[in-house]
Amino acid sequence: MKAQEYLKTNDLFNALNELKKVIPDDKNYTKAKETIAKYEKQYKEELLKHVEYSINNKDYEKAVELLKEAIVIMQDDNDINVKLSICEKKLQQQKQEEKKKKIEELRSKQIVVVESAKIIEQDPRYKALYPDMLQAIIKNNSGKTIKKMEVGFLGYDENGYPMKIKGKYDFWGGDYEFIGLAEDVNIVAGDIFGYDAGWELSDPHGLSKIIACVKSTTFYDGTTWHNQFYDLWLEEYKEKPYK
């Protein structure tokens, strides 16, 4: 039997996996059941030791991997199923904490920062001529002068649900992520941009709230800064209710 070869190398998982494939009509069925009874407890004890070692080292990913492997041959074992459920929850919490830490780390490393964002009403009556605008107040902490930049916007309705943003000259229905390009802005180091500028919206637009983040900037020295926080920001907020 193939299982015997695995047992010679103490590969209990593959040995048990082979033994459990033996059907009742097989002449080796009784022997297979006896061998399973002999080695299954040993396999489980060794497995749980490895799982506990991983848990103690907060390696929940490895613990889940080991337990999922065990489920293949011991799917009805209550101890393993309970342990797997606990470790999966721990792993999810760990990943959420790591993501949160990474978000805060990259947020703090931004050299050009959106301080606030809102919708500006230019004129309550003549919106065809003076449409509402997306406004972002941006601080340049780079130590350089910004020549141009891209700013991403996300919009929400009055209930905080995501909406597509449609610019004044957007004839395609808009998108959930609006990229505003600002050229020749000449923002010197330490200066703030945005109080007298904005991106015009279609009318009506239906937006009640917006948030924004700088995607990239090009400086007068020819270098470009790509905001590493931007993609995480999108992942966190795009097409999701406002938090």
Describe the structure.
The chain has helices spanning 2-8, 12-19, 29-56, 60-73, 78-108, 229-237; strands at 112-120, 133-140, 146-156, 162-163, 178-182, 192-193, 199-200, 209-219, 224-226. The chain has two domains: 2-105, no CATH class; 109-237. The model has no long low-confidence stretch (mean pLDDT 91). Helices cover 40% and strands 22% of the residues. The chain is an alpha+beta fold.
Write a brief caption for the model.
The protein has 243 residues and is α+β, with helices and mostly antiparallel strands. It has two domains: 2-105, no CATH class; 109-237. The protein has helices at 2-8, 12-19, 29-56, 60-73, 78-108, 229-237; strands spanning 112-120, 133-140, 146-156, 162-163, 178-182, 192-193, 199-200, 209-219, 224-226.
Give the helix/strand layout.
Layout: H1 2-8, H2 12-19, H3 29-56, H4 60-73, H5 78-108, E1 112-120, E2 133-140, E3 146-156, E4 162-163, E5 178-182, E6 192-193, E7 199-200, E8 209-219, E9 224-226, H6 229-237
Antiparallel strand pairs: 1-2, 2-6, 2-7, 3-4, 3-5, 3-8, 8-9
Helix pairs in contact: 1-2, 2-3, 3-4, 4-5
Average residue-wise pLDDT = 91
Report how far the terminal alpha carbons are from each other: 60 Å
Name the shape in a single word.
elongated
Main beta-sheet strand count, sense and barrel state:
5 strands, antiparallel
How much of the residues is beta strand, in percent? 15-25%
Rounded Rg? 29 Å
Total helical elements: 6
Helix-strand string: HHHHHEEEEEEEEEH
Low-confidence stretches: none
Q: Give the tally of structural domains.
A: 2
Q: How does the helix and strand content classify structurally?
A: alpha+beta
The strand count comes to: 9
